[in-house]
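agent: user wants the full assembly modeled, not chains individually. Plan: 1) parse entity lines 2) check alphabet per entity 3) run joint structure prediction 4) return tokens. Steps 1-2 passed, four entities, 436 residues total. Proceeding.
--- entities ---
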Amino acid sequence: MGWTDEHGRRLTDYDRPSVAVDVALLTLDAGGRLAVVVHERTGAHARGLPALPGTFLHVDGAETLRDAALRALRDKVGVTGREPEQLRVFDDPARDPRGRVLSVAHVDLVGHDRIEGTTGVLAPVEDGTLPYPLAYDHDLVVAHALRWARDRYAAAPDPAGLAGGEFTLLELQGVHEAVEGRRLQKDTFRRRVADGLVETGHVRAGTVGKPARTFRRR
Amino acid sequence: MGWTDEHGRRLTDYDRPSVAVDVALLTLDAGGRLAVVVHERTGAHARGLPALPGTFLHVDGAETLRDAALRALRDKVGVTGREPEQLRVFDDPARDPRGRVLSVAHVDLVGHDRIEGTTGVLAPVEDGTLPYPLAYDHDLVVAHALRWARDRYAAAPDPAGLAGGEFTLLELQGVHEAVEGRRLQKDTFRRRVADGLVETGHVRAGTVGKPARTFRRR
DNA sequence: TCAATAGTGTCTCTGAGACATTATCTG
DNA sequence: CAGATAATGTCTCAGAGACACTATTGA
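--- prediction returned ---
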């Protein structure tokens, strides 16, 4: 790399920060409540508060941020096949006691079924706050992720597919209530999402009351 | 820095990327059209296409991304007193031929008066495209910045204050048409912004026709 | 039959969009 | 006065929100 800048120096003559990625992976717990996947750090070299799955960007090998985020999900909580989205960079110089570490926060939403059997731990996100603090500035990351998810769910019916492939309107409404963090009115909700749904022709039978029709996302 | 990770290594044992900030500073040119501030790079060590004002993050001294963005604006185009906002990270491994450089793109909107007399050059952003290509992936940055600006201007009247402190509704409409990139209907526009404005009590006199009342943002 | 859940008709309110009209200035 | 620009009355349409009613099932 023989390039020099306006002062005649090479890139590597300057001090560089470490760059990490952290992923706020949101999901619903068994009770249908919004939660974020964290991992307990119990090793000899990494103890302390639970943290979001994260890792350092591997510069050798030209890894992208997206690939690093996928690697963190796989290695830290055993989740694969996701498509995390960039949220923002957290750059408080004091955010990591080990040195100057920028964190490129990512966010994704995943169905509960993809979490089961993994090493991830669910931390409920009750009205925007966690039951215990997270490591580094990860509480802040979760707060941003939550706003991102709410914006997306306000704009389209279940964009992440948390309700699964086929669902009744009431099931879909439950997912939206969990993510958006507020109760919704069923008739208003139905009309809001109707355009984005296709009827499957099936019904959800075997319950008390009138069986509900099921839908797919368009 | 004695901290070690789960593999017993220090942070600085890993290869780290260079981190740059680039700022898409949007403004209106003399004709009231949307433009982005670029600078020509004519030095011996940096020739080529015009680029957005940018710089490398200074890790020594614990510089934040925001401070680096402000420094880039001051040193590269002579603009001060702004509040750039983070847009996203561009991380294509091939985006900079000098090596692995992540760019944290920022965006800001500034009144034309703050650009006059600076070393910046205005590149018009005609319906989202530039008249000539920019260095690196800066065309992509501008495209994202434009979307950001349009979203903000769709939500509130002139959030960046491009119209100045006191303006007529038609002047405000001209600013919004330039940023949003479409013609607006005056009566619809007036009602849309009315809530966010306060009447000054003055009128814009000395023109032909009925003098217009002037407003301030609330 | 009743209890429970699903689904819809309809009313109000708000805001965008558009057309046409009225108001007030300069020359 | 004419011409130009400012400002607004009013109509339509669409969507959110809410209430109440009807529909269909199991027990």
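agent: reporting back. Residues 168-170, 186-187, 190, 207-213 of chain A lie near DNA strand C (CB under 10 Å from a C1'). Chain A touches chain B through 41 residues (CB under 8 Å).
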